[in-house]
Amino acid sequence: MSPASVLPEVAAVRIAEGERLRSVELPGLTLSVRSRPPARAGLPPALYVHGLGGSSLNWSALMPLLEDVVDSEAVDLPGFGDSPPPDDGDYSVTAHARAVIRYLDTAGRGPVHLFGNSLGGAVATRVAAVRPDLVRTLTLVSPALPELRVQRTAVPTGLLAVPGVAPLFTRITREWTAEQRVRGVMALCYGDPGRVTPEGFRNAVREMERRMRLPYFWDATARSARGLVNAYTLGGQHGLWRQAERVLAPTLLVYGGRDQLVGFRMARRAARAFRNSRLVTLPDAGHVAMMEYPETVALAFRELLAEATDSGDEGDTGGPGAKGARGPAADTGADEAVDGGTTAENVRG
User: Fold this and answer.
1) Which residues lie closer than 8 Å to 304 by C-beta, 6 or more apart?
2) Is 94 exposed, middle or buried (0-12, 13-18, 19+ CB in 10 A)?
3) Which residue, 220, 226, 184, 232, is CA-closest to 204?
4) Could you give the 3-state DSSP secondary structure of residue 166?
5) Quick one: DSSP state of residue 81?
6) Buried/exposed 209-219: b ≥16 CB within 10 Å, e otherwise
7) Helix (H) or strand (E) holding 345
8) Where is the AB hydrolase-1 domain positioned along the sequence (predicted)?
9) Which of 95, 138, 189, 315 could form a Cys-Cys staple with 249, CB 3.0–4.6 A?
10) Rounded CA separation 37/48 (Å)
C-alpha cells in the first residue's frame, strides 16, 4: 500500500490567487506541482525547489513577479508540502535530485531556469551538474553547500539529522502552539521577521497546523536533514562543491547578510566555485530572500536572463540546453552511498 493511500484527513494546502496545484505520478513517488499561467504562451519554463521544511508555497511571492519572462512551476519535494513520502523512504540529496530530474524528463519541460533555496539549492546544484541539458540558468538562494565552520544558530537544525532527536524534539515541543512554532521558524529564517504581514503570518500558521497533522512530517524533515549532512561528507566527483564546479549554466547566487542557517561568508566561495556566476548580496536578508525581498531577487534574475539571452544570441550553442549538449546520466542511489541594500557583481571562472 502506498503512503499516499493511508494519510489522515488534513486541511487542503493553500493555493495563492492565480496559482494551480496538481499531482504528478512518477515511478516510486508522487509530486505536487504548483504553477502560474504565464503572461503569454511560449515563454521558457522555470522550476523552483524549496528548502528543508518548506514547500512550493515558499516561491509564491516570486513567481508572479516573473510571469512575463518565464512559465513558472514550483515542486513540493517528496514528503513536503502536498507531496506524500517516497515509496522507498529515501530523502537523500541524490533522491531529491532524482525526483526533480524524473519530473523534468517526464514533463518534457527541460531545459528550465532552475531555482533552489537552501536544501533545494543543493538539490538544484546536483541536477545542474549531472544533467546540464535540463538547465538553462541556475538561481540559488542561500544554497546549503558544505561549510567547515557551521554557524551556532544552524546547529539545532543540523541536530535533527541525529537519529532519535526528531522524536525527542516532538515530545519536548508537544505543547507548543502553531503560532509559537511559526514565530520560531520566522525568527530563524527571516532577517527581519517584522517584514511578515499579518496575513502572511496567519497563512503560515494555517500551513503549520496542516503539516503537524501529517504523520510523516518530522520523519521527512529529519531524514532530509540527515541526507543533507551525509551529502556534506561526500568527496570526489560526488561532493557538492566539486559538482558546483561542473555546472555549465549561468548562475545567480543570492546570499543574505543576516542568514542564520547558511554562512554569509560562503558567498565568495560559491562565486569562485560556479564558473559563470553573478553574486547578489542582501545585507538585511535572512535565509529566504525570495520571500523577504522578492522584487530584488526578481530583478537580479531578469538581469541574469538578459545576459544569458544575449550570450545565446551571439551564437554560443555549446551551453546548457543546446541541442546535442546532453549531460551524463543522473546520480543513482549508489552515488549517495559513496554519495535592504544590495550588492551585485559578475564573477567568471
Assistant:
1) 137, 139, 250, 252, 278
2) buried
3) 184
4) helix
5) T
6) bbbeebebbbb
7) strand 343-348
8) 47-292
9) 138
10) 15
Looking at residue 16, its pLDDT comes to: 83
pLDDT value of residue 57:
95
247 with 138: CB under 8 angstroms? yes
Element containing residue 282 per DSSP (H, E):
strand 276-282
Please check whether residue 33 is in contact with residue 21, taking contact to mean a CB–CB distance below 8 angstroms: yes
Q: How many residues does the chain have?
A: 349
Q: Which amino acid is at 195?
A: R
User: pTM for the whole thing?
Assistant: 0.83
Q: What residues form DSSP beta bridges with 46?
A: 72, 113
CA dihedral angle for residue 71, residue 76, residue 78, residue 83, rounded to 10 degrees: -110
Helix (H) or strand (E) holding 25: strand 20-26
Helix (H) or strand (E) holding 170: helix 165-172
**Under 8 Å CB-to-CB from 37, ≥6 apart: which residues?**
18, 20, 67
Helix (H, G, I), strand (E, B) or coil at 254: strand
Distance CA 245, CA 276 (A): 10
Mean pLDDT, 10 residues at a time, the chain of 349 residues = 50 84 95 95 96 94 97 97 95 96 94 97 97 98 82 46 44 72 90 93 91 88 87 81 96 96 92 96 96 97 91 46 34 33 43
Distances (CA, A) of 155 to 104, 160, 225, 295: 34, 9, 11, 31
Picking from 349, 337, 336, the residue whose alpha carbon sits closest to that of residue 130 is 336
